[in-house]
Amino acid sequence: MSRSRTGLAEEAMAGSRLSLARLLTQVENDTPEGRSALDWLFPHAGRAHLIGVTGSPGTGKSSLVNRIAQAYRNPGGELTPRTVGVVAIDPTSPFSGGALLGDRVRMRDLAGDPGVFIRSMASRGALGGLARQTAGAVQVLDAVGFDVILIETVGAGQSEVDIARLAHTTLVVEAPGLGDEIQAIKAGILEIADILVINKADHPGVANTERALRSMLEMGYSRRRSRRSKEQPDLEDPISAEWLPPLLKTVATEGTGTGELVQAIDRHLVYLKSHGELQRRQYERLLNELDVLVQSTLVSRWHSGLQEELYDEVVAQMCDRKISPYQAMEELIKAT
Amino acid sequence: MTERKIRVLIAKPGLDGHDRGAKVVARALRDAGMEVIYTGLRQTPEMIAETALQEDVDVVGVSILSGAHMALVPRMVELLSANGQENVKLFVGGIIPEADIIELLKLGVLAVYGPGTSSRKYIQEIQQAVWGETAA
After folding, report:
1. Domain tally for chain A?
2. Hey, is the C-beta of B4 within 8 angstroms of any chain A C-beta?
3. Which in A48, A279, A304, A312 has the greatest CB count within 10 A?
4. Chain B residue with minimal CA distance to A25?
5. Is residue A94 classed exposed, middle or buried when 0-12, 13-18 and 19+ CB atoms within 10 A define those classes?
């Protein structure tokens, strides 16, 4: 590699879309060049509004992303259009390692707009609804100056909640006919919603879905309210801040309700800024990122200092049930 | 070190609505471990080239059953190279007359695959075109 390690990043910052695309590949493949670029770009990032869009497969996430991006590009009236980056993640096959990335099929309205940049990513075995390098890709788009970044997760079921850590505003998209009230009170994905969307609201069964989700939300509200009324408002406690996730109905294919949705997203950003939540979320995210990095680095260092014979021996003892996994761990840690 | 994933864009330029072939190829390439971006019907060459750029693909496959290949493919070659992606491999699927195949190959098209081409053949040729080059 003859070019300087930050060459692509500098060209991308200067507006080269080809360099931006190539840089995203380096970051996605976690190459030395990609890592250096991320180091170099880090001080420039942190300005974009990161919006996560998650929900079950087939609820219309891509179509909604298409509409939201259009709304930011053509805000109407006196408002200045905002530039939009999109990172759309689809699953990698656990058998072949290949992937079919089809989110762009629903985003064709965004084609030809220089203020939009869409990148598809395969999950490559990560389980939280994102790919391992999604945060890096988002950081690149943020640093080169996109105002808004929409992150569409893998079609997520119940516990793919990594998006809430990455995004400032998380949309959970539901559609009629997918589950009953018990689904709505389970822990997990609904809890991470800053905004709940019932898409395909022209389909039958929308009233039932709405009722189930609304009662779930109201239980959450009353819990928050009673906690507040008992104690004095505690500014340190994020729950005492009063963002109540709105429930909105949309038909993304027709654009119905998407104007209100974008207004709600903007209101959430104002709320985050005025309550210090933006800093708090960023702090938590960076802390978490650091934790993960320290852990993986320590593990790989420990691994490289390990004698294979000893490892095999300890594993064999454990498989014979002579020592427990806990004892095996102690043995191995002691040895390095 | 694992082999770098091959990223492929499968696209349908022009007005014909027969996307069965494109989907079968997309699926076969996925099963061969590639990351396949599929964009759906009725794309203009400009849209396809823009997608190829944003996705930084190694390969673009276009499926054309409308007979417009002698207009669409040269335009694709031109746009890819205008975007600085002259190294991207372009292959064509569809029913293409023999004489036109020769012309398309002269333009630098990697291959033209007609009906009945075995998936093993195009998978191998794509892998060789991408990995063969980076290994050299």
Report:
1. 3
2. yes
3. A48
4. B56
5. exposed
Domain match, A193 and A175 both:
yes
Same domain, A69 and A152: yes
Residues A99 and A243 in one domain: yes
- Structural domain boundaries in chain B: 7-135
Cβ neighbour number for residue A211 with a 10 Å cutoff = 12
Query: A-B interface: how many C-beta pairs under 8 angstroms?
Result: 79
Contact assessment for residue A192 and residue A163, using Cβ atoms and an 8 Å cutoff: yes
- Token couple for A48: 């974009």
Location of structure tokens 């119940």: A158
Identify the CA nearest to A115 among candidates A144, A81, A153.
A81
- Inter-chain touch A118–B54, beta carbons under 8 Å: yes
Return the CA Rg of chain B: 14
DSSP 8-state class, residue A232: P
* pLDDT tens figures, A220-263: 655 554 544 444 444 444 444 578 899 999 999 999 999 999 99
Number of residues that make up chain A: 336
Residues A97 and A201 occupy one common structural domain: yes
Instruction: Give me the CATH code for the B7-135 domain, please.
Output: 3.40.50.280
Give A20→chain B minimum CA distance, Å: 8
Q: pLDDT tens digits, residue range A152-186?
A: 998 876 667 788 888 999 999 988 877 655 665 56
Q: Could you tell me if A213 and A184 are in contact, meaning their C-beta atoms sit under 8 angstroms apart?
A: yes
Same structural domain, A28 and A140? no
- A289 found inside a domain: no
How far is B133 from chain A, CA to nearest CA, in Å?
15
ipTM of the complex: 0.91
pTM over 0.90: no
Report the residue of chain A nearest B48, measured CA to CA. Answer: A111
Q: Do the chains contact at B33 and A98, CB–CB below 8 Å?
A: yes
What is the extent of the structural domain holding A313? 305-335
